[in-house]
Design brief:
Blueprint: E1 5-15, E2 21-31, E3 35-39, H1 46-52, E4 60-65, E5 68-69, H2 75-81, E6 82-85, H3 98-108, H4 113-126, H5 142-154, E7 160-164, H6 172-183, E8 188-192, H7 196-202, E9 205-210, E10 213-219, H8 220-224, H9 227-232, H10 252-257
Parallel strand pairs: 3-8, 3-9, 6-7, 7-8
Antiparallel strand pairs: 1-2, 1-4, 4-5, 9-10
């Protein structure tokens, strides 16, 4: 089956106005349906790269999303197709109610009142917080806020979900629930994070960025089981976490036993 290319980046370079060079020639192709973890030390350029995917930043080089060049005339369509979920849900939730936050995109897309309501309830259902339309985000738990922030982009029916540090500040239980939620979503996903076990649970492919370049790109198990490669780029697996090849992965309840 031939997949479309969700993301095509060729020789992308970017320097901030103060002269700091953040990206030094990035080449990256992501097929539709892949889930890709982008990992690397602070200052590697991960967040800068992510902001190019929907045209918040534009550097030199080529960025195409589902064959559309990321340029002014396509931004409206690209921002519908690319759901960018920031690290802090409070950057995404600012309306009086959850309904208003999740309805914001669909209303901007010009959907009718009825279509907006369908889009909102479907998005909340997809992230497991159905029925919270009338709540204020202020009264949600952090895990619920995280889900609501994803719903604000899902309501626009995106083709690509880009999550910046998705597991940060989640307690272990919320983190596991969130991981299951992501695994159940049949959509192209890019996760930008320091959390290597979270990447291993959620991504088929891992890209290591370092110093504004791609240092490694491969299947999740082979990258995350290469301790030498990880340590060269300031990454380490938490103590006691050993990735196992996908097909032999024990069921979650088997894993509790040997602790």
């Amino acid at each position: 089956m031939h997949h479309k290319k969700a993301v095509e980046i060729k020789d992308l370079r970017y320097a901030y106005p103060d002269g700091t060079i953040a990206l030094r020639g990035i080449d990256l192709t992501i097929e539709e349906g892949e889930s890709v973890g982008i990992v690397g030390p602070n200052g590697a350029g991960k967040s800068t790269l992510l902001l190019h995917l929907n045209g918040i930043l534009t550097g030199h080089g080529e960025v195409r999303i589902f064959d559309l060049p990321v340029e002014k005339k396509n931004l409206r369509e690209i921002r519908r197709r690319v759901g960018l979920v920031f690290q802090d849900p409070d950057d995404q939730l600012f309306s009086p109610t959850v309904f208003d936050d999740v309805a914001f995109g669909p209303i901007n897309m010009g959907l009718s009142q009825e279509e907006v309501e369908v889009a909102v309830s479907r998005a909340l259902d997809d992230v497991g917080i159905a029925g919270m339309e009338k709540r204020s985000a202020y009264h949600l738990s952090y895990g619920q806020k995280k889900r609501a922030s994803i719903a604000t982009v899902l309501s626009m029916n995106p083709d690509l979900l880009v999550l910046d540090e998705p597991s940060s500040n989640l307690d272990p239980r919320a983190r596991n629930e969130f991981s299951e939620l992501l695994q159940g979503m049949r959509i192209t996903k890019i996760l930008v994070t320091h959390d290597l076990p979270f990447v291993f649970e959620n991504c088929d492919r891992v890209v290591i960025m370092s110093g504004g370049k791609i240092a490694a790109d491969g299947e999740a198990f082979s990258i995350l089981s290469d301790e030498k490669l990880l340590s060269e780029h300031g990454l380490e697996l938490p103590y006691g976490f050993y990735p196992v090849p996908r097909d032999t992965a024990p069921k979650p309840h088997d894993r509790e036993l040997g602790n």
